[in-house]
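[stage:ingest] chain + small molecule (zinc ion)
[stage:ingest] validated
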Amino acid sequence: MNWLSNFIRPKISSLVGAKKDVPDNLWQKCPSCDGMLFHRDLSEAQNVCYHCGHHLPVSVTERLAILFDDGAYKEIKVRPVPVDPLRFKDRKRYTDRLKEAQAKTKRADAFIVAEGTIKGQKAVIMAFDFAFMGGSMGAAVGEAILVGAQTAVAHKAAFVVVPSSGGARMQEGMVSLMQMPRSIIAVNMVKDAKLPYIVLLTDPTTGGVSASFAMVGDVHIAEPGAMIGFAGKRVIQETIREALPEGFQTAEYLLQHGMIDMVVPRKELADTMGRIIEILMVKAKPYSPKGKSGSGSGLGKFVKGKANGAVEDKAKAAGAVAKKAGIAAKAKAIKEIALPRELSNEKPNDAQENVQQAGQEARAA
Ligand SMILES: [Zn+2]
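[stage:predict] done
[stage:export] tokens:
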């Protein structure tokens, strides 16, 4: 509406030339030490502050480039899942939120599944994209975990998951919670195939993600300073009404308390992971139990012997009771004791004789 801003300013800009090619985010401040970080140096340092070593977030594609040899990998397609099963709407429709996130990240959902090698070892990585709705886990992410696990099994590769997630996606309600057992089933397929399953916990790993597949790895590696937990610190503090210790829910705290296996700086991640996979990939001989039939029948005999002993004991107890209680009670007790023997195909034995004897005694009384 303003003549100055609508006409004069664009005119001047076109004459002077808007400096669009110079980005305004060449420098950024380290959130930990406030040191100034130049973008090129920072990206060379894999987004780790070169003043204090603080690990800044990396995008999911940078993450894969860091882990895979020469940054080379093949993306694996994931089957599409039904979208918005609950037709959920808060301030916005869930479908609109999805579209926005898809436009922003150029990704179908909050994941990427890729295949390649880590220090020469075959590996499938399923990584979360935190930029996509906070890396929340819905049906699509569950599907990605499943596809990643299936690919790892089919190609006899290690399976690595890299969660970076706020937990289950609330817009999918129960469906998102069902991804917890589903992801466990996926991971168990990898374990059944005797392939390594490694979890790289990055900042943040919380909620339903930390309460399912992210905590059942063969080896748990975390990045320095990563926030890992189930409920947020404030929620816990308000619930238990106690102050929580310093560094609570950080990777270092969890390492001290035995929840994770190691905290590894970003630049050493690929080496460490490659080494672990190499150790775990040593071909183990398939398990074959020795003397299978022998031990089986032995166990059977043991169980039967126990059962007979139990019947004998019961018969004795019944006899004692019957002497006091009279014939009616006796007969009932005998019936109860006789029942398990009818079910088994055992020949009449001492136990049965004991019962008969007890019955006669009862009748005499
Ligand atoms: Zn710093």
